[in-house]
């Protein structure tokens, strides 16, 4: 029995599928979006009413920031940035581990119409310099210990943190230090002298970098409207307006998962965020009891550790207040879900699916019953539409047919920064985002991810592009050819494995190959297994047949 949609379309209420246009519509209630076009995400968040008192807690030091202190600091930092010449459209780099100051920097920059670009503190100087060359920031925020990673650039620097004694003794870098974030936060905001340009919802707010199959990291351009829609989705998903909640922030804030929820989204709800500067399972578990946390976002490998060590954990740590864990990065199987439910019977397990290109929004399971659709990524998020498209023929497919998942909605990016070719191949003229995931949607509207068209390796929730590692391997003087594949691992999800063809007459070792890559990439990108072969299997057009290599590697398991 079909029901009539608000737009006059006949939509199956069970699956959300409309036969007339082969589109799936979200079964969730639509999210309200502000009609005022002259609105930035910082103003939107700060103007929302709530009864929360503490916004952020530093899990290590115990330092707290109230909502009043956060917004006063944002106002002061924005005023200081305006004084030193930061204007609408300028890009500002943020290189920092998780911190209670991370959101203050982001919100201050975006309030001026300037653009925040974040990067992984684990990235090498080479990787960070590539991002700087592409995004062309005019200012950098970083901590003293990370100054050497941007020492090659001429960027003026604002230091985050109070421990200024740990600044490396590098006179070149030190001469570029403009001020400290702490001193900016203490300055009385000067609204009369601030140059406040008109910021609209369509203006760019963030420039986050997402890896692709080409190995070239691409800047994802997201608007204030994208972030506002994301905030509304996060708040409505957890019904956070119904009461104050406390979240443990273990996921990195530089990533869309952390930035969306912890650096912006939860501020709108009055929830408290307990920030861990780096992930350590003992510190995370201690923080749950110490701060009476109710929500714990994580990635599947951490969930595996919680299940495998449940007896020890429940004896040692107080988890009584915890009522939900939120998993993202990969769908969870039956054994893991039921293992968790058995060990932690009072905690609900929820899942989420999203991309940097969709501002972290796409699909979710919002109850244990939904999560028990084993292997699902969930139902479409509010106001999101989907299509399943045959990647070969372009045919748009109905229920229970596998093809590439396309998404459209208010959180979909504007495009890739200064990369028209990549934008055109990912985002069509009607606003459909090609996700690169092979999926099907079942009779009840649940999305199942079958495989990836984009061949990214998922290591502990981080994305590792094989092509980037292959390009580096081919710079080794003793390597003739190489291919990198995902090797399955229960602890980390997948790790990079290399198949290497040696040049004639050398005895290159697997350790030498791994060491060569380790010196050039972040730790999560390191190759952790090597096999030597006579040739790399490829199709007639020269594309590496990774599936053949994956079968070869896993056949011996």
From TrEMBL:
It comes from the Eukaryota. Pfam families: AMP-binding (PF00501), AMP-binding_C (PF13193). This is 4-coumarate--CoA ligase. CDD domains: 4CL. One of its GO terms (molecular function) is (E)-caffeate-CoA ligase activity. The keyword Transmembrane helix applies. Pathway: Phytoalexin biosynthesis; 3,4',5-trihydroxystilbene biosynthesis; 3,4',5-trihydroxystilbene from trans-4-coumarate: step 1/2. Belongs to the ATP-dependent AMP-binding enzyme family. Residues 48-417 form the AMP-dependent synthetase/ligase domain. GO terms for biological process: phenylpropanoid metabolic process. The chain crosses the membrane at residues 91-116, 254-276. The keyword Ligase applies. Gene3D superfamilies: 3.30.300.30, N-terminal domain of ligase-like. Residues 468-543 form the AMP-binding enzyme C-terminal domain. Keywords: ATP-binding, Ligase, Membrane, Nucleotide-binding, Phenylpropanoid metabolism, Transmembrane, Transmembrane helix.
């Amino acid at each position: 029995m079909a029901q009539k949609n608000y737009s006059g379309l006949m939509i199956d209420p069970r699956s959300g599928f409309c036969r007339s246009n082969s589109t799936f519509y979200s079964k969730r209630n639509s999210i309200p979006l502000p009609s005022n076009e002259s609105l930035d995400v910082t103003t939107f968040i700060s103007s929302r009413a709530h009864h929360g008192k503490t916004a952020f807690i530093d899990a290590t030091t115990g330092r707290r920031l109230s909502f009043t202190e956060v917004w006063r600091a944002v106002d002061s930092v924005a005023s200081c940035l305006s004084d030193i010449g930061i204007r609408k459209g300028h890009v500002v780099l943020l290189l920092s581990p998780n911190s209670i100051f991370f959101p203050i920097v982001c919100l201050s920059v975006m309030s001026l119409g300037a653009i925040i670009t974040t990067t992984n503190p684990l990235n090498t100087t080479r990787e960070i310099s590539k991002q700087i060359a592409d995004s062309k920031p005019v200012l950098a925020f970083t901590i003293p210990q990370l100054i050497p990673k941007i020492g090659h650039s001429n960027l003026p620097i604002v230091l985050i943190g109070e421990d200024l004694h740990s600044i490396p003794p590098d006179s070149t870098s030190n001469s570029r230090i403009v001020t400290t974030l702490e001193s900016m936060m203490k300055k009385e905001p000067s609204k009369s002298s601030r140059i406040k340009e008109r910021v609209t919802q369509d203006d760019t707010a963030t420039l986050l970098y997402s890896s692709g199959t080409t190995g070239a990291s691409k800047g994802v351009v997201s608007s204030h409207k994208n972030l506002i829609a994301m905030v509304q989705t996060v708040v409505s998903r957890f019904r956070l307006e119904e009461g104050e909640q406390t979240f443990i922030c273990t996921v990195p804030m530089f990533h869309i998962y952390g930035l969306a929820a912890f650096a912006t989204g939860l501020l709108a709800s009055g929830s408290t965020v307990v920030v861990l500067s780096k992930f350590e399972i003992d510190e995370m578990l201690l923080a749950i009891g110490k701060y009476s946390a109710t929500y714990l976002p994580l990635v599947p490998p951490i969930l595996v550790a919680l299940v495998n060590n449940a007896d020890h954990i429940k004896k040692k740590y107080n988890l009584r207040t915890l009522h939900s864990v939120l998993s993202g990065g990969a769908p969870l199987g039956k054994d893991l879900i039921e293992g968790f439910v058995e060990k932690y019977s009072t905690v609900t397990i929820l899942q989420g699916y999203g991309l940097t290109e969709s501002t972290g929004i796409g699909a979710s399971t919002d109850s244990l019953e939904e999560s028990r659709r084993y292997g699902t990524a969930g139902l479409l998020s509010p106001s999101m539409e989907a299509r399943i498209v045959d990647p070969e023929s372009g045919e748009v497919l109905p229920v229970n047919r596998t093809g590439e998942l396309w998404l459209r909605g208010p959180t979909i990016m504007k495009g890739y920064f200064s990369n028209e070719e990549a934008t055109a191949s990912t985002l069509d003229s009607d606003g459909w985002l090609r996700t690169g995931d092979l999926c099907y949607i079942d009779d009840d509207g649940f999305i199942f991810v079958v495989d990836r068209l984009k061949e990214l390796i998922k290591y502990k929730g981080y994305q590792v592009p094989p092509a980037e590692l292959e390009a580096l391997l081919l710079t080794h003087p003793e390597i003739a050819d190489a291919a990198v594949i995902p090797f399955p691992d229960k602890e980390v999800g997948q790790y990079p494995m290399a198949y290497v063809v040696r040049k004639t007459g050398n005895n290159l070792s697997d350790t030498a190959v791994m060491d060569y890559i380790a010196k050039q990439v972040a730790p999560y990108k390191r190759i952790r297994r090597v096999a030597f072969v006579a040739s790399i299997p490829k199709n007639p057009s020269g594309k590496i047949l990774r599936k053949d290599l994956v079968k070869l590697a896993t056949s011996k398991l």
